[in-house]
Amino acid sequence: MIEIQGVTKQFKDKNKYVTALKHVSFSVKEGQVVGLLGENGAGKTTLLRTIATLLTPTDGAVSVAGYDTIKNPNEVKKKIGVLFGGETGLYDRLTARENLEYFSGLYGLSKHETKVRIDDLSKMFGMRDYLNRKVSGFSKGMRQKVAIARTLIHNPDIILFDEPTTGLDITSSNVFRQLVHQLKRDGKTIIFSSHIMEEVSMLCDSVAMMHKGELVYQGDLETLYKSEGSRDLNYIFMSKLVRGNEHYAS
Amino acid sequence: MLLKIYLKEIKDCFRDRRTLLLTVLLPVIMMTGLTFFYEKMVSDGEEESYKLAVNNAVAQDADAIFAGFKNIEIVKTANPEKVLKKGEAQAALMMDADFNQKIAGGEKVDVKIVGDSFSQKSSNLMSFVQNAFAAYEKSIISERLQTNGTNPELVEPFHIVQNEVSGENNNASLLAMLIPLILAIAIGVGAGPAAADLFAGEKEKKTMEALLMTPVNRSTLLVAKWLTITTVGAVTGMVTLLVVALEITFLTENLKKSISFGDNASLVVTIAVLISIIYAMFTASLLMLTSVVGKTVKEAQSYSTPVMMLAMFPAMILSSVGINELSFKHFAIPIMNLFSLLKELVFGVIDYEHILITIASNLICMIVLFIIGRILFMKDKWVMN
């Protein structure tokens, strides 16, 4: 479903180049839920943005549902739904419904399709009470629900979440976790980055660990637990980072 | 798709109280204030009343000299300068106690006028006093010549008549400077917040990323947003023109007299509207660039402020240029051409060649700005923080 081959991404910062991704390669199968782990600045967001066609790789290639992200970005965009963390990316002066209708229109859905999707999603997230209210008055949890609904408005096969539960309270985080379970049951392919190891071990089939722009591990969780002799993902993650740092030091 | 994005952006913009305030309320307040200011400035001051402090000893002489000036009230006092300093009069008149006797005796008499040239009212009063004394001086000379058996016309060999080349009074020149300046500022100030919000604001709120994730062409997004900024600017321009027209027509005397388009009125208004739209398009292109470059709304506004200040220069340069002196360069330089063309329109001059040069030069600049904007908007660095 997603093939990442030798992707390198460099940014120009003043007069020098900073390498955010170094020859990253991995693949994600259809229906898999992959947790992307790494410290701040490890390259998780850059990798998600590259998969989402928002960034062009300096080297290497990314293919999503058989489409190259550079040659066919629009086809890739139709297949993907993305929610970047921290900010919900909603228009405050529009109502929740108007936000959803606008993005639905941009994805080319008809009026009827839009109505059906908004009805389904508002039912799924319990948004009916505030669907016609302006977003500016929403709580963070309400905003997050509308933002997730916007991400799913065109019913994408692949969903990318960048630290989706950042700043959410327990109730809203649980709603998100239930959603991932639901999406998994519906056969969606999901990659989400997170700092919360319990969340990853609870939701993911496999993990990809990143350190200083490099992929230090990718594989299914059960194999990882066996190879590390522990089921504590937090401990495994920290030991991987220590090994990664030793590798850099040598 | 373009229409869909445009309509959403317009809805979003006009739901913003700040935009509404700047597009409707600001032009009304600015125009009202400036119209009344200019109306007062161009008025000859005859309807205003003034207080002239005069020494008790010469009060009767002063009454006789200023008998024809109904708006000048004589304040009789022992110390005229003190009264002036206290602000109880706008000017003080100092002359000898035996003023009339000395005049009758053919002696030369000193008259001193004290006032504040920086005060409009004091300055007006000092001119009136000088005019009154000039008339009085003329009558004395005439009397003396007649007593000597000489025809007074001998000392007045010619009479000077000064006419304006435009056929209008000087007040029209003030309007020719006022209207384009207000229009330029209003369009810039009105469209500024919308422009900053549409690019830099979207980057800041992360809606830009969500937008770029949709299969919509970036050029379509750019054009839709540019059209939105243009619309907000043009609406502000229209409101400004409407307010200035209504206020001059119904609330002023002197400014109203200055403008007379005759049969050309509807054509002049149509061209003024067209010029406002073209200027709004040009401003939108500039503001679009500053907003694309800015990472936050605040940063975009910092870049756009000096750009908007550009409108001040043509106003200053053209204030000393007559409409017969306007040449190709005045119509070929954007912003300057708005001022030049509106200056012509205020005087009722419609020159199609000048209009075409203005439109062409603005279009060329807009295309160049648009190409730069598109290049920037296609690069990741400028669309995501």
Describe the model.
The complex is a heterodimer of chains A (250) and B (385). With 250 residues, chain A is an alpha/beta fold. Helices cover 41% and strands 27% of the residues of chain A. The model of chain A has no long low-confidence stretch (mean pLDDT 86). The two termini of chain B are 26 Å apart. In chain B, 40% of the residues are buried. Chain B has a 4-stranded mixed sheet with strand order 2-1-3-4, sandwiched between helices. Chain B has 2 domains: 2-41 and 168-383, no CATH class; 50-155, 3-Layer(aba) Sandwich (D-Maltodextrin-Binding Protein, domain 2), CATH 3.40.190. In chain B, helix 3 links the parallel strand 1 (50-55) and strand 2. By secondary structure, chain B is mainly alpha-helical. The longest helix of chain B is centred in the middle third of the chain and has 35 residues, at 171-205. Chains A and B meet through helix 2, strand 6 and helix 3 of A and helix 1 and helix 8 of B.
Summarize it.
The complex is a heterodimer of chains A (250) and B (385). With 250 residues, chain A is of the alpha/beta class.
Main features:
heterodimer, A: 250 residues, Rossmann fold, six-stranded mixed beta sheet, 10 strands, 27% strand, B: 385 residues, mainly alpha, 17 helices, 6% strand
Please outline the helices and strands:
The complex is a heterodimer of chains A (250) and B (385).
Chain A: E1 2-13, E2 16-28, E3 33-38, H1 44-51, E4 59-64, E5 67-68, H2 73-79, E6 80-84, H3 96-106, H4 111-125, H5 140-152, E7 158-162, H6 170-185, E8 189-193, H7 197-203, E9 206-211, E10 214-220, H8 221-228, H9 233-249
Parallel strand pairs in A: 3-8, 3-9, 6-7, 7-8
Antiparallel strand pairs in A: 1-2, 1-4, 4-5, 9-10
Chain B: H1 2-14, H2 17-42, E1 50-55, H3 59-65, E2 72-77, H4 80-86, E3 91-95, H5 99-104, E4 111-115, H6 120-147, H7 171-205, H8 207-212, H9 218-251, H10 254-258, H11 265-293, H12 297-309, H13 312-318, H14 328-332, H15 336-346, H16 352-377, H17 380-383
Helix pairs in contact in B: 1-9, 2-7, 2-9, 7-9, 7-11, 7-12, 7-15, 9-11, 11-12, 11-15, 11-16, 13-15
